């Protein structure tokens, strides 16, 4: 025990260690210190070498990153990097404005080369696009959405009244305009009597984050009721006692095929197949892009079909028709927006069912749009009762494109504003 304590004391005490070292052999001591010094020197040299290598590598990277010359970098790689830097803001703009760009692209493509669009119309691609949009809507329709639509029945009821009763009264005002050709004015008056759009209103409502189930309910109901209401509106408001027939059976069959069946199928598929339901839930962005692509087929086909007539019309007359269509849509938006505010004021203010953003968005978009396919079917059935059918359709094509493109920009503005508020 005494020896052990003495050893520990010698290891701890610096005085004892010094005395012990002095008692060592001089030659052994020199060899030990030489080994220690050599070890320390070699460590410092290795550390200094690693530091120099790292610094040199970093400086080389920084020179190349700051645009300095790099002899090993090929011109092709440098050009690709420059292109990617320039293309990045363009891709960002296209991503944030995909909806209006797709619609404008469809119009431009139809004007530049109408052949593919006419071929698509011959094979009923417009019906396929509408069918696809409502299939996607059915796949994304949830039971709680249906419940929310049922709770918002006053909103839906006013939407139906606006579509089928109030906005057709604008035809009386439109007919007071005097413009050549007069078919442009008559065509817009007929357009104001139509139900809401068959597919674009629902697609735009979903992209805007509105109550999609409510939009679907108003679209389907107004389209079916229009089979009875449109002949009455045309006869009383436009024909002034002249009987006007509407292809009731044809319209009814088409609405059932393009609206109700795909909507029911989409909902049934989502409820029946677990894997499909998971795919839909995990790929909402992909389905939104697909809906936009299907929606852009509508203006592409319509412009392709009408291009021969569009070319025949004088540019100034066509420009006036475009402005009249845009003004009509602005009036519809203003009327429905003012009505929503008034209904909120008389039904509870901020607690009103009309004040909920999802409901007001669906109502504003659905009640402010009119269906071009229904108008085309009506004009075909009327023949030459109100003038040249082609001239009747031209301003309605412009109005149809205007309402979709204007609403797409409006939705893009809403989404950017919501994103900005969320970031704040």
Automatic annotation (TrEMBL):
Protein name, entry field: Probable sodium/metabolite cotransporter BASS4, chloroplastic
Q: Which family does it belong to?
A: Belongs to the bile acid:sodium symporter (BASS) (TC 2.A.28) family.
Q: Which residues form a coiled coil?
A: none
PANTHER family from the entry? SODIUM BILE ACID COTRANSPORTER-RELATED, SOLUTE CARRIER FAMILY 10 MEMBER 7
Topology class, membrane: Multi-pass membrane protein
Q: Species name for this entry? A: Lactuca saligna
Its function, per the record, reads: May function as sodium-coupled metabolite transporter across the chloroplast envelope.
**Keyword set for this entry?**
Chloroplast, Membrane, Plastid, Transit peptide, Transmembrane, Transmembrane helix, Transport
Name the InterPro entries for this protein.
Na+/solute_symporter_sf (IPR038770), Put_Na-Bile_cotransptr (IPR016833)
Transmembrane region(s): 90-111, 123-141, 153-175, 187-208, 214-239, 251-270, 285-303, 315-335
Broad class of where this protein is predominantly found: membrane
Where's it found, cell-wise?
Answer: Membrane; Plastid, Chloroplast envelope
One of the record's GO cellular component terms: chloroplast envelope
Pfam families referenced in this protein's UniProt entry, alphabetically:
SBF_like
């Amino acid at each position: 025990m005494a020896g052990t304590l003495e050893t520990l004391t010698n290891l701890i005490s610096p005085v004892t260690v010094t005395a012990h070292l002095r008692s060592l052999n001089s030659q052994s001591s020199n060899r030990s210190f030489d080994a220690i010094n050599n070890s320390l020197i070699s460590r410092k040299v290795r550390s200094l070498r690693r530091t120099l290598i790292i610094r040199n590598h970093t400086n080389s990277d920084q020179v190349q990153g700051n645009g300095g010359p790099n002899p090993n970098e090929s011109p092709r790689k440098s050009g690709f990097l420059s292109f990617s830097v320039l293309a990045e803001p363009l891709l960002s703009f296209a991503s944030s404005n995909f909806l209006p760009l797709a619609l404008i692209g469809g119009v431009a493509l139809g004007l530049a080369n109408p052949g593919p669009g006419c071929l698509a119309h011959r094979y009923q691609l417009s019906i396929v696009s509408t069918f696809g949009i409502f299939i996607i809507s059915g796949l994304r329709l949830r039971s709680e959405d249906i419940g929310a639509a049922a709770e918002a029945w006053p909103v839906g009821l006013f939407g139906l009244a606006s579509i089928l009763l109030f906005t057709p009264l604008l035809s009386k005002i439109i007919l007071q305009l005097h413009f050549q050709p007069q078919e442009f004015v008559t065509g817009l008056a007929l357009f104001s009597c139509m139900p809401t759009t068959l597919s674009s209103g629902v697609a735009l409502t979903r992209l805007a984050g509105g109550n999609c189930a409510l939009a679907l309910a108003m679209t389907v109901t107004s389209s079916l009721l229009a089979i009875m209401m449109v002949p009455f509106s045309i006869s009383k408001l436009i024909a002034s006692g002249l009987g006007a027939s509407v292809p009731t059976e044809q319209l009814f069959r088409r609405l059932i095929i393009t609206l109700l069946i795909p909507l029911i199928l989409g909902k049934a598929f989502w409820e029946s197949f677990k894997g499909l339901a998971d795919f839909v839930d995990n790929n909402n962005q992909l389905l939104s892009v697909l809906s936009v692509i299907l929606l852009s087929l509508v203006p592409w086909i319509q412009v392709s079909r009408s291009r021969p007539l569009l070319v025949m019309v004088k540019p100034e007359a066509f420009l006036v028709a475009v402005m009249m269509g845009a003004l009509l849509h602005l009036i519809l938006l203003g009327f429905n927006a003012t009505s929503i505010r008034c209904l909120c004021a008389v039904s509870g203010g901020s607690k009103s069912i009309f004040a909920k953003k999802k409901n007001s968005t669906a109502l504003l978009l659905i009640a402010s749009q009119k269906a071009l396919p229904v108008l085309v079917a009506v004009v075909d059935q009327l023949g030459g009762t109100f003038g040249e059918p082609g001239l009747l359709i031209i301003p309605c094509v412009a109005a149809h494109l205007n309402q979709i493109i204007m609403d797409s920009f409006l939705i893009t503005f809403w989404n950017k504003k919501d994103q900005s508020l969320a970031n704040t």
